[in-house]
Design a protein that fits this description.
This protein is of the alpha/beta class. It has helices at about 45-65, 80-85, 85-95, 100-105, 110-120, 130-155, 220-235, 250-275, 285-290, 295-315; strands spanning about 1-5, 10-15, 25-30, 35-40, 70-75, 95-100, 165, 170-175, 175-180, 190-195, 200-205, 240-245, 320-325, 330-335.
């Protein structure tokens, strides 16, 4: 653990497989009566033991300075598995109240709700038309995918939180005001925490120092993401971002602008490829092959999410349109169909 700002500590969970189980930052806002943990990380036994040991170190540090130490609550930034899997065990072992927004609570109340919220529709979301055997293979992959979540992430669902928290409200943490900012985009239930007096934003996954955050269906939305970034860049006294992955960001306005420009550039790339496609149109798979000509299959699968969301956004703006031709979904400039 490390103290990043007075009373704000970071606990870095190592993770195992970078793309499937990446390192996660857990933040402890410590104090003498109503401290809070932001994000819950993984729920496997080894990780939970590590986090509790780190919290005991923070407690010992406070005791050595004759300061009181008490954590009372835990709040995730959103309901992706690397942020909520540890909720149940950490709340149980540390005696914490789980506080959630209503959007979060609806998603993680049971396995059925969670799977429904996390599974993309092949036709509607990813523009894929698959035959019978391809659908069977997809179902088999899904089974192993959720088995991995269960054992590697240690995910456990909560049928009800201890307390609901509203978006766009202020909560007190050790007598300091933190604003709960709705920041959908990466996930539809995503929130961030902001302390105006210190200029510190706990950004979850929306702003990361060296990577572009994952955007893909279901639950992600590029328009919402850009709107969230626009809200964040206009926060008063904005000085520091503490992200859920990677290092702190000490020049947050520049980083937010970089992310916005990156998304705009990607959108230009997609519409450029569609506009330059032949009259027969282009499939999302062909488009992805042009964007990632040397990319590994796993990179292309990850990239498919943002590409399809971008195509949806362009279709909403009446810049592209699609049709089903010979059991394939093809995109065209609106003036070519």
């Amino acid at each position: 653990m490390k103290e990043l700002s007075p009373g704000i500590f970071i606990i870095k969970e190592k993770g195992v497989i970078k793309r499937r189980k990446p390192p996660v930052n857990i933040y402890v806002i410590a104090g003498n009566n109503d401290g809070l943990i932001f994000d819950a990380g993984y729920g496997d036994k080894k990780t939970i033991k590590f986090v509790i040991e780190e919290i005991e170190e923070i407690k010992a540090y406070y005791k050595s300075q004759n300061k009181g130490f008490k954590l009372t609550r835990i709040l995730p930034s959103h309901t992706h598995p690397d942020h909520i899997s540890g909720l149940y065990k950490l709340s149980k072992y540390l005696g914490l109240k789980v506080i959630l927004t209503k959007k979060m609570a609806e998603i993680i109340k049971n396995k059925k709700s969670y799977r429904s919220a996390r599974e993309a529709d092949l036709l509607k979301d990813l523009f894929l038309i698959k035959n019978f055997w391809s659908r069977v293979i997809t179902k088999i992959k899904d089974y192993f995918h959720w088995t991995f979540f269960k054992f590697a992430f240690g995910i456990k669902f909560l049928d009800s939180p201890d307390e609901f928290i509203e978006e766009n409200t202020i909560i007190l943490i050790n007598n300091e005001s933190w604003t709960v900012i709705p920041s959908p985009g990466h996930a539809k239930d995503h929130i961030s925490l902001y302390n105006k007096d210190r200029g510190i934003l706990l950004s979850g996954d929306n702003i990361i120092k060296s990577l572009t955050t994952w955007i893909g269906p279901p639950g992600s939305d590029i328009g919402s993401y850009l709107n969230s970034l626009d809200v964040i860049k206009n926060l008063p006294n904005f000085k520091l971002v503490l992200p859920a992955h990677g290092r702190s960001i000490k020049n947050p306005l520049r980083r937010v602008e970089e992310i916005i420009n990156h998304r705009k550039e990607r959108t230009k790339q997609v519409i450029g490829i569609v506009n330059n496609s032949p009259d027969k149109g282009i499939t999302p798979t062909e488009l992805i092959d042009e964007l990632y000509p040397q990319g590994a299959k796993i990179i292309q699968r990850i990239g498919r999410g943002w590409v399809c969301l971008t195509l949806k956004l362009l279709e909403e703006q009446n810049l592209v349109t699609h049709a089903i031709v010979n059991k394939k979904i093809k995109f065209y400039p609106t003036n070519k169909l």
